[in-house]
Amino acid sequence: MQTIDTHNVRFGELAGPLVNGARFFDWELISTQVITEAFDHAFEDIVDVGGIPYAPVVAATTIHRYPGFRDIVTVETTPISVGKSSVELLYEMIDGDGDPLATARLTHVTIAPEGGAQPLPEETREAFRDALEDADPDVGPQESNAEGSWPSFTESFDIRGPHVEGSELAYFEEYPRFADVALERFLESKDTSLDTLNGDRQPFRLRNCRWEFVSPVQYESTLTVESDIRAATQNTLRIKHLFKSDNRVCIEGVTEYGSFDKSGAPTSFTPGMRALFTEG
């Protein structure tokens, strides 16, 4: 199902010449609302009775190219598995030429007002089942046995109004923003900023991620982002992330950052960029 149709990239979506990485998450959430509404299970109806609609349980995304000004984005959303209370959706984002921008797989459950996963309405589950396609794309970070001594860093964020969506929880799009800010602050601790690094390259942009959502982050709580670097190669900065609130893990996963040129295509890190992540 086409859930976003030929969307023109706008100024407010950019970070420099390219789209902000969190925008891909926003397009995923918009697409989820469109397809669930088409299957008679609208987000606003769930929120009206105190539920949390289609919360992600597992989210994996791979970005093939970052769009920028004059780019057009279309999103196709396809159910690829469905259970009693969960549905896994495949999101395929393409540009105006039909070339891939990003691929994502998210498993969603709706949280009941009293807590716990709420069963899907039977007619909605049947609609998802009828629309299932046999697809199993490899999305997100790859396994790695990289060795070495790498630094870790931690940042905390207050969850206030600008970060909150309709269910009084931190908005899905905000989590990659928090991770990005934590990384920028680490670079500043090395007397480096993205402004000084940006030239022919746009480094340390989200490339792959796979996050498991354990518990929600509430309004007016404090979210701590623990970042444990696992590798810094020519093409990939790999970080294990733990998002915690009140000393409990809310999200855990692996995030890979890459370097991109001004057209949005992947390129490599410079030796100087990689050196920022060595111990000592």
TrEMBL record:
Record protein name field: Acyl-CoA thioesterase FadM
Chain ranges of the Thioesterase domain: 35-99
Family annotation (CDD domains): 4HBT (cd00586)
Top-rank taxon: Archaea
Organism: Halogranum amylolyticum
InterPro entries linked: HotDog_dom_sf, Thioestr_dom
Transmembrane residue ranges: none
One Pfam family in the UniProt entry: 4HBT
